[in-house]
Amino acid sequence: MKVDDLLHRALNLEFLTAEEGVFLFEQAATAELMYVGNYLRQQQVPGNVVTWIIDRNSNTTNVCIANCKFCNFYRRPGHEESYTTSIEEYKQK
């Protein structure tokens, strides 16, 4: 893998694999990544105004009975670490 080849593919809107992304993260110069990222952004949103979204996930409870195998967040009803946020607590978040 070569950094220049991957950056060229990105500039051509070709998909990169996760492995290629990790390679760029570890090997590419920050300035190169910033240039490519800004160039691609300007193709979608012309101009010099850049914005972002603050995505906040306020969990009202961690009580769940689904028993998903991948979830480490939930607690069973009655568990000592379970919680349910009141309306007043939620308003403060």
Give a structural overview.
The protein has a domain at 3-44. The longest helix has 15 residues, at 30-44. The protein has four helices and no strands. With 93 residues, it is mostly helical. Helices cover 43% and strands 0% of the residues. It has helices spanning 3-11, 18-27, 30-44, 87-92. The termini are far apart.
Distance between the termini: 46 Å
Number of helices: 4
Low-confidence stretches: none
**Global shape:** elongated
Helices and strands in order:
Elements: H1 3-11, H2 18-27, H3 30-44, H4 87-92
Short description:
The protein is mainly α and 93 residues long. Helix content is 43%, strand content 0%.
Features:
mainly alpha, 4 helices, 0% strand, elongated
